[in-house]
TrEMBL record:
GO annotation terms (biological process): DNA integration; DNA recombination
InterPro entries, alphabetized: DNA_brk_join_enz, Integrase-like_cat_sf, Integrase_catalytic, Integrase_recombinase_N, Tyrosine_recombinase_XerCD
Species lineage: Bacteria, Pseudomonadati, Pseudomonadota, Alphaproteobacteria, Sphingomonadales
Keyword GTP-binding: no
Gene source species: Sphingomonas metalli
Protein name: Tyrosine recombinase
Gene3D superfamilies, sorted: 1.10.150.130, Intergrase catalytic core
Domain Tyr recombinase: 177-344
GO molecular-function terms, A-Z: DNA binding
A Pfam entry, by short name: Phage_integrase
Domain of life (superkingdom): Bacteria
Alphabetical keyword list: DNA integration, DNA recombination, DNA-binding
UniProt key word Magnesium: no
């Protein structure tokens, strides 16, 4: 087994019984994972992300055989192996698992973890109390409610519960627009601090000029360029988008030295992890004096700019990969109202002038 310097951390190579070189992800406390794709390919990077996020190479569970039947520990073990949990993308699985695992580890008045409680004993009043204990963090409480509801629906389907008590509860009202949408002035401030040719600038350009999430931008590389287009399979949803490489993005890519398998490499010569990339973008934004801005806010800014340019929802979805109009509406809520109202007024007046011209033409024809 050999650890080559050019391989990512925890990845080693070894010859199989036929002498062919294979690659494997190994880390203490986690199950080993044999790669199905060669290093440098998009498939390899996707597998690597799944290993780092604990999906392809999950934590080795100690004492699994001692889990009591009918408990939430038992239910969660089954749930993590079901399509209900596995169908969403790897990144989404990490988020959902984190919410459930934090809840499972909490200790109730009985002195036992929630994971040790019997599924059949959960009632709506218990859920209401658990959510109330999370206040004032309403968003986190609502997220837990969603995940518990999905878990209990699964429990009903496999006959571990007769009903879903979470359905009888109500979410907390949250008055928030979510991640701040970058304004054009904020984009200009970032660009002034991080000029073309820097990794910080390329990170912004990859998100802004593609409308993709930070998790997808951090893994983009030469392997994503096909026929002069950028082809990305989104980590969260599995949706594949094929996008023209616009001139500002092309200039940024060409001006930034390529030092690895992906466009954005860390100071240590490795691709960023999901958390590491978010933290780095946070640093770059702070350096530009933009504490209110974040990586995800750039995706919203891209959608906003498309909306202000008069693009339809279908056109915006073709870029962002969203599947519903309601999702696009959330992302374009910050579109400039004055600009859009002016455009709507121009279209209205143009339509009225056309109708008036048609009426006049018919009148002249009738008079003749």
């Amino acid at each position: 087994m050999t650890r080559k310097k050019w391989l990512p951390d925890n990845v080693t190579s070894y010859p199989d019984r036929h002498g062919k070189i294979r690659y494997r992800w190994r880390k203490k406390g986690f199950k080993p994972y044999p790669f199905k794709h060669e290093p440098g390919t998009e498939g390899f990077l996707a597998e690597l992300r799944a290993c780092e996020d604990g999906i392809a190479a999950p934590v080795v569970e100690a004492g699994v055989d001692r889990i009591k039947s009918g408990t939430f520990d038992d239910l969660l073990r089954r749930y993590y192996r079901s399509p209900d949990f596995l169908d969403p993308g790897p990144r989404t699985q990490v988020v959902y698992r984190g919410v459930l695992e934090r809840w499972r580890a909490r200790v109730g008045k009985s002195g036992k973890r929630y994971g040790e409680a019997m599924v059949r004993d959960l009632h709506a009043r218990h859920v209401e109390k658990m959510l109330a204990e999370m206040l004032p963090h309403r968003t986190a409480a609502n997220m837990l409610r969603k995940r518990l509801s999905a878990l209990m629906k699964f429990a009903v389907r496999i006959d571990m519960a007769s009903s879903n008590p979470v359905a009888a509860t109500r979410p907390f009202k949250v008055e928030s627009a979510g991640f701040h949408t970058w304004t054009d002035e904020e984009i200009e401030a970032y660009e002034s601090r991080h000029p073309v040719g820097t990794t910080a600038r390329l990170a912004l350009d990859l998100m802004l000029w593609t409308g993709q999430r930070g998790g997808d931008a951090r893994t983009m590389g030469p392997s994503n360029i096909r026929d002069r287009r950028l082809v990305v399979t989104q980590e969260k949803t599995g949706v594949t988008v094929s996008l023209p490489i616009l001139a500002p993005l092309a200039a940024s890519i060409l001006a930034t030295p390529l030092t690895g398998l992906v466009f954005i490499m860390s100071e240590h010569g490795r691709p960023y992890t999901q958390k590491g990339f978010g933290n780095k973008v946070r640093q770059w934004c702070d350096e530009a004096g933009l504490p209110q801005c974040s990586a995800h806010g750039l995706r919203k800014a891209a959608a906003r700019r498309f909306a202000e340019a008069g693009c339809s929802n279908q056109m915006i979805k073709a870029w962002t990969g969203h599947t519903t109009d309601s999702e696009v509406a959330r992302y374009t809520a910050a579109a400039n109202q004055q600009l859009l109202s002016d455009a709507a007024g121009d279209q209205l007046m143009a339509n009225l002038r056309e109708r008036l011209a048609n009426v006049s033409a018919k009148s002249l024809k009738g008079g003749a």
